[in-house]
Structures are given as C-alpha cells and as structure tokens.
Amino acid sequence: MTIDDLMAEARGRPSGFDYMRLILSVLVLTIHSVQIAYGHKIYMNAVWAHFPLDGLAMTVLPMFFTLSGFLVAGSLYRCRTLLSFMGLRFIRIYPALAVEVTISALLIGPLVTSLHWSEYFTSAGFFRYLFNVTGHVSTASLYLPGTFEANPEPGMANGQLWTVPYELICYIGLAVIALMGGRKDRRVLLLGLLSFTAFSVFKMGLRTGWDFDPWVGPVTGRALVIAFLCGICLHAYRDKVQIHGYLVAIAGAVAVIAFSLSGLGQYVGLAAIAYVTVGLGLMNLPRLWVLKSADLSYGIFLYHFIIQQLIAHLLPGLREWYWIAMISLPVSMLVAHLSWVGIERPALKLRQRVFALECKIMRSLPGLSGWHAPAER
Prior knowledge:
Layout: H1 3-9, H2 15-38, H3 40-47, H4 53-58, H5 60-78, H6 82-112, H7 117-120, H8 124-130, H9 164-182, H10 186-208, H11 221-236, H12 245-261, H13 265-281, H14 289-293, H15 297-314, H16 321-348, H17 351-364
C-alpha cells in the first residue's frame, strides 16, 4: 500500500505519528541522561563511539526532524497562504520556548548559581541565554553563569536547544521553496532536497579535507535539515511511495550501519531512516490515555535537560544515568503536561485569529489566492 492508502485508512491521522513523537522525545531524554550523569567526555565515548550504539543514537534526531517535515508538509498544503503557514509554526514553537527560557533564566538560574544575584542578572551570559527566545541559539547561549558548577556538565542549562535554529531554518527554507513553486510542483521539493544534500556533502568534504572517517558525535545541523526535507518529499510523493514491513526493517538496518561507518553515513542513512520513520508513523495503533490527554512530546524535549541538571544538582548521590533517566521522565512528563495545558494548547487556539487575519489580507490582495492551487500529481 502507498502512504496515501495508509493515510486514508487512518482517516488522515495515524496514531503511529503521535507514538513516534512521544517515544523519540523519551529517547532524547535517555541519551542526555548519560551526559548529565558523567559529563561531556564520557558521554561522547560511551554513546557516540561504539557500534551499533552510535548508529542507533544518531537516528533519533533525524527521525524527529523527518517526522516534523512529514507533518508540516500537510500543513503546507492545507494553508491558503504563506501567512497562515508561518503563523501556525510560530504559535506552535515560540510560546513554550519563551516560557522555558524565561523560567530557566529568571527562576532556576538564580536558585542554583554560585554568583551573587546582582552579578548573575547583569552578566553577559544571562542576557545571551535570554536571547534564546528569538530562536537564535549559539553554543555559548546554552549556559547560565555560575549554575550547576558541581555537576559533571557545569553551567549548561539546556543543551538540546541547539536544534532550535535548524528547525526554524527548516520552516523558512520550506516557505522559500514553496514560493519558488514547490507547493504546486513537487519536483521543486525533490530538487531542493538533492541540492541541499550535495551542498552539505561538499561543505563537509572541504572542512575535513575529504576524509570521511566515522563521525563521533550527534549528527550535524545540516543533516537535520536534510531529514526534514526527506519528510517533506515523502509527503509530496505519498501517492507513489509504497510501505512494506520488510523494507522498513531493512532500511532501519541500513541507516544504523550507514551512520556508524563514516561522516558520509549521515547523508547515506538519512533517506533510509526517513522511510523507517514514516513507515512506523503510519501504524495506526489504538491511542492510549497518554496520547489522548495531551501532546507531551515538545514539552519533554524542551524541559527535560534542565530538569535532569536539577536532579544531578539536588541528588548528587544518584548521579547514574539510569537514576537520572528514571527520575526525570515522570517529572518531565508532568511539566510537559502543564506546558500543554497552560501554554501550548491555549496558544494553538490563536489559529482562528491567524486565519481571520489571513482572510482579511486575502480580501485586500486577491492575487494571494494563487497559493491555493493544488500540488501536481
């Protein structure tokens, strides 16, 4: 059956995608528990330097971004203009991000910093961290001054925020490709994927002197963008791509091996893991209560790192990865639920205002209706 067939069977929203988002967020939490418990050096050697653990770990973030690309593509085709498309992305990402950054900087940071509050609140590091609310995240802006100094990963407040700029790049890049005709002609989307992949391989070659030894560490940001584009293209060609269980299994093995072999494996394995992600997402299993009550995936992803740092800070006798993972998971789920109820779900209700503004602008500028043309098949 094709992706289209399986989507139709599930009435457009298979539960597998919801399970995948939740499972992947928990896997990110589990991987980071090693970093929090033992520090960066041991984390790199334990997770990213041993086959097949390195290959398995490297699949997690690309799967997240493929999933995002596939689901965002549906929004791209449903939205009448670029205004509503970008507006929906904004209200999904920024409110929870802004609250997390603000709480971390203004509440948690002062409680765990070794600096005097007057020094903490006037330091450049404090303002750098606050600037993360814009989505412009650098390595230096992941740290809060004087915090968690006795932890194995001192100072780092939210390490997972490094992916936020690449998510924004994905949305902006997709909007640009859509304006270039990608929404009406899916071949433009495929060309964008192939072009960006070629550019990424070329740039990696220049940086490494064309020596593609095994890549020790998480996948690059460019690889995440490619994973997102793979998800977009799988959605665009959903009437052509067939899903078979045995192919999903083979693609999973290919992806793990490819990610482990060399730096190029980041790019070789991305198409395979994208197929696996969509194949698993199309499984329409009965929804458990954890999926019916709230969408916890973004909240877990966003809050778990600083929660784990707090656990390592408050309970130094339990600095083993499994203790940190087991304690932080229910706490992160609780915080994610509160985030969903108090921040994310209310923000999503602003969709009607976005659509109302879009209608008002479309009445003033009738030419925008051309965006609504269906994609070619």
